[in-house]
Amino acid sequence: MPQQFGWHTELPIMLQHINRGNHLANEALIAYLNEARHRFLDHIAVPEWRNDGFSWLNADLAVRYRSEGNYGETLRVEVAIGGLHRCGFDMLYRVSDLASGRDIAHAKTAHILFEDAAGSTASLDEPTRLSLQAHMAGS
Q1: Cα separation of 124 and 83, whole Å?
Q2: Is the pTM of this model over 0.90?
Q3: Which DSSP state fits 73?
């Protein structure tokens, strides 16, 4: 995980995201990561929902749980680009409790640009590459 992230969002833990163990459920954490990803990409003007014959595929997800998230807490989800390659990028996330700063989870997702008609991966266009590059961890 990078020491500094350039962007964050805040999301409350709601009752429907609590599991039988009385803490944040695994699938709810993934939903929070998805929401943070969407907000981040919107912020840097990289459209997540494309209508140009291309789409983003989630290729990978890794999560390291650090502590439980509890009902009533507000999550601070920090996001940065972790790496770029020809047809996609990795995103890094640090999820913590806003009030205490306690780490709840660290995560990484990988995203691939896919050309729908060809049924194969596609190279990133230059504007997308430049926008993602400007928000790489450590930049």
Answers
A1: 13
A2: yes
A3: -
What is the Cα–Cα distance from 18 to 93, expressed in whole angstroms? 20
Quote the distance between the C-alpha of residue 23 and its chain's center.
21
Please check whether residue 1 lies inside any domain of the structure: no
Which residues form the domain of 75? 7-133
Which two structure tokens, joined as six digits, stand for 82? Answer: 């972790």
Buried b (16+ CB within 10 A) or exposed e, 79-112: bbbbeeeebbbbbbbbbbbeeeeeebbbbbbbbb
CATH number of the domain where residue 100 is located: 3.10.129.10
Q: How many CB atoms lie within 10 A of CB 20?
A: 6
Residue 41, H or E segment: helix 26-43
Supply 8's token pair. 């964050």
Domain annotation covers residue 138: no
Query: pLDDT tens for residues 55-97?
Result: 999 999 999 999 999 999 999 999 999 999 999 999 999 999 9
Q: Is 21 among the domain residues?
A: yes
Rounded to whole angstroms, how far apart are CA atoms 6 and 58? 22
